[in-house]
Amino acid sequence: MKLRYLFTALLFTGAAAPLQAQSIDHMRKLLQEIQQEIDCLEKEQAETLKPQKEPQPVESTEYVDGVIAVDTLPSGNDAVMIVLFNDNTWKYLRNRDYVKDSEIYTRCWDTTKLFPYRDVVKLADLPRSVDIELVDSLKCYHYPYKAAIRSKFGMRRRRKHQGVDLPLKTGDPIYATFNGKVRISIPSSKSGGYGNLIVIRHDNGLETFYGHLSERIVHADEWVEAGQIIGYGGSTGRSTGPHLHFETRYCGQSFDPERLIDFQSGNLRRETFLLKKSYLDIHSSASQDFEDEEAEANDEKRAEEARKALASAQYHRIRSGDTLGGIAVRYGTTVSRLCQLNGISRTTTLRIGRSLRVR
Ligand SMILES: [Zn+2]
User: Fold this and answer.
1) How far is the CA of 79 from the centre of ligand 1 (A)?
2) Would residue 296 be called left, alpha or beta, if left means φ above 0 and alpha means ψ between -120 and 50 degrees?
């Protein structure tokens, strides 16, 4: 009886213990599932609150230069006006009176200093991310220049390349990227390597830099429309070969222009841009150091020369009786040139069967 009681008790505890453990595990699992469900719902809700649309590329607008505005009409919206042109076309344009007093065009506005935000807006003071409406409903955007990039944004040798380099033919038109106001239009002598330089501040708060221009046709404090020709491409300043050095900056800090523009197609990648602080860095408020740009081009030139020299290299197989002098005469060169090409001296013994570079 006593044994039977013990057995039952054992059986009971034996059964109860795993049951308890099982239910705890079960509860844990359930809780986990519920938590996952909540996470999912929260994520979904966040996504509904802030729609994560596929970025919509914006095609470049067409801007026909030489066409003159002849009249303006009200559009029903005071911020927008209808402009009639002398070629019988018309388009909606932003009414400048509505943006001219905005903080964008008054804060740190300096038509001589390249970097007026410096010492005023520190990188540390900027928010972790900023939502930038690149274009408004009128989608005023035009590529600055359309080409395959020759040199990208980022580290180049030991220093930072603050923009992208777009190769061009001298005299090719350069366009204002967005609507805005010209802040800087200065000659080579004042730009420190940028050559003929134009800087435009835009309604969206960004600034764009256009360097090495052959000609500037807009002046500081002038309002410009996206797609308006602001100057012509060239190779002024510290530059080797005609190209546009193009920068995009926010509060003076540079970030990769390729985040905004697909330079090959000329399209703007998206209408709104989430500028993350991680796109900027402590060095990005600095001016472009063009010494590297030149050094890199020189490196390229030297490499190209070396490739060419190697492609046209000619060799002579050394035979018995050959002398450096004899070989030099035969190939129309000099002994010192032969020594230089082969890294040998005049007294080096010529080994039969070896190849000697003669050209
Ligand atoms: Zn550059």
Assistant:
1) 37
2) alpha
